[in-house]
Design brief:
binds phosphoenolpyruvate, 42% helix, 248 residues
Length: 248
């Protein structure tokens, strides 16, 4: 899976242009259908979902409210996202944890609401540079995943495939990436942790995110446990995004 996180970038015209190119491209690559997820800013979700139709490219969102509805000015609910055609939603991105002070508990609540509205969460987890240097990565991931596991346990229905994006904070937008062996160890830990704590999940897909480009994507692709990428900066340019996928 290749998930594009456009963050607060792209104009309506840029988004439409990307969608046109992506549609023409996927028409030649049926094997990619349902493996490309584009997460634009809120105003572009509906137009993009309409434009992409049943092309096989999926429209997602970058966040949702931890509340179901009500007096929360500026927030967008999981239900509203479902109404406009979002099928995936990124939650727990570090920019929301650090800049908007979102707690892991709030992220757990978002996951519950997304489950209720049949939107597949893409749960981001990852440690800071300091935590990495202190060898605290797994402790941090365990803390971040605890409310997610709680949400899974109390859900009435969960998606067939649950998606976790491992995004070390120090790798987001910095050009730095972890060593392949580090990634393999982290993926293996996430998988066994989730399997033992949330056995109701049938399948777990782990994405890597953080300064992904066509070169490092090529070298990471064979890492055991990797199920795709969450791509920020390089997803804003269709050609760069296509180069990461590696199919012309
Ligand atoms: C992200 O913010 O999810 C991300 C992975 O960004 P970038 O690819 O730009 O590091």
């Amino acid at each position: 899976m290749y998930a594009a996180n456009w963050k607060m970038n792209m104009s309506a015209g840029d988004a439409a242009d990307f969608a046109d190119k992506a549609k023409a491209w996927i028409a030649r690559h049926h094997e990619l259908q349902n493996y490309i997820v584009i997460c634009p800013s809120f105003p572009f979700i509906l137009p993009l979902a309409i434009e992409l139709g049943n092309s096989g490219i999926i429209t997602g969102a970058q966040n949702c409210s931890e509340f179901p509805h009500g007096a929360y000015t500026g927030q967008v609910s999981a239900k509203q996202l479902a109404d406009v055609g979002a099928m995936f939603c990124i939650v727990g991105h570090n920019e929301c944890r650090s800049l908007l002070h979102e707690s892991s508990d709030a992220i757990g609540k978002k996951v519950s609401l997304l489950f209720e509205h049949a939107i597949n969460p893409i749960v981001c987890v990852g440690e800071t540079a300091f935590e990495f240097e202190q060898h605290q990565t797994l402790t941090i991931l365990e803390q971040q995943l605890a409310p997610i596991i709680k949400a899974i346990k109390s859900a009435q229905s969960i998606p067939h495939e649950f998606i976790i994006a491992y995004e070390p904070v120090w790798a987001i937008g910095t050009g730095k990436t972890p060593e392949p062996q580090t990634l393999e160890n982290v993926f293996s830990w996430i998988l066994s942790h989730m399997q033992s704590k949330a056995p109701s999940i049938q399948k777990i897909r782990i994405l890597y995110g953080g300064s992904v480009d066509s070169l490092n994507a090529k070298s990471f692709k064979h890492i055991k446990g990797l199920g795709g990428f969450l791509i920020g900066g390089a997803s804003l340019d269709f050609q760069k995004f296509k180069n990461i996928v590696g199919l012309d």
